[in-house]
Design a protein that fits this description.
Layout lengths: L1 E8 L8 H7 L2 H8 L3 H22 L9 E3 L5 E3 L5 E8 L2 E8 L2
Antiparallel strand pairs: 1-5, 2-3, 4-5
Length: 104
């Protein structure tokens, strides 16, 4: 079992351009992102950035940006096509923290 954690300020993502959004988010994540109200997009982007950074710390996989984190019908986060990756995410005020457990 491997773990990774990342914390970031949400406000850092307020001025990111479309190129950055497309570099960080996969196709399915982008669909979720585009359905959000504008004020929620910043938190979504910061959260997914933190998730992918935490995933890299847990796995050292150089393709960590290719992983996609989506919400199921109940709103729970999961890693698409990777049931061995467990996810926890929390945010408060201007901070978001992501925690990843990669099961063997």
């Amino acid at each position: 079992m491997d773990i990774g954690v990342d914390i970031t300020k949400i406000s850092r993502f307020a001025d990111k351009d479309e190129h950055f959004v497309h570099r960080i988010l996969g196709e399915s994540e982008l669909k979720e992102y585009l359905c959000l109200e504008d004020e929620k997009k910043i938190t979504y982007l910061a959260s997914h950035f933190a998730l992918k950074e935490a995933l890299f710390k847990a796995s050292q996989d150089e393709h960590y940006l290719k992983y996609q984190f989506l919400h199921d019908e109940k709103g729970k986060l999961y890693c698409l096509n990777h049931p061995e990756i467990k996810v926890s995410l929390s945010h408060d005020d201007d901070l978001v923290i992501a925690f990843i457990v990669k099961m063997d």
